[in-house]
Amino acid sequence: MKGYLTIVLAAVMLTCAVGDRIRVGDKDGWAQNVNYTEWAANHRFYVGDWLYFIFDKRYYTVLEVNESSYINCNDKDFIYNITRGGRDVYNLSEARPYYFLSSGGYCWHGMKLAINVEQQPIHPPYPSQSPHKNGAFPRENDDNTFITVLFLTSTIWAFFL
Fold this sequence. Notes:
By secondary structure, the chain is α/β, with parallel strands linked by helices.
């Protein structure tokens, strides 16, 4: 029973740890005059994913804020300052709306992001996705699936040895 519980716990922890790393703003990164509303509309965000903010830390910051502060570009009562070195990650640890902005007035130049994070679907929504040019549907989590299977196999193997 103890071994079974260990395996289940390891699987749950691994599922949370292997989310996708999503570069905010894609090639533009976290910068002024980027339409993050449009950018976010083209992405799905799931519990366990990591937002990867790339920016010049001499000028910009990344603050998690509440919805009211997001709407009003208020950086005074932020929830969490993500800013560390300009190549910063933030784990989306629960299913809920998240709001981010840059302080120093840059929010007024578009440096704000609102996303809604969902629970990871049990079965990927492949049929609703549009196919690639070659007609194949995209395969998003092959690396994560491989890592999960490899980890679980090695955990089970170690348990029985």
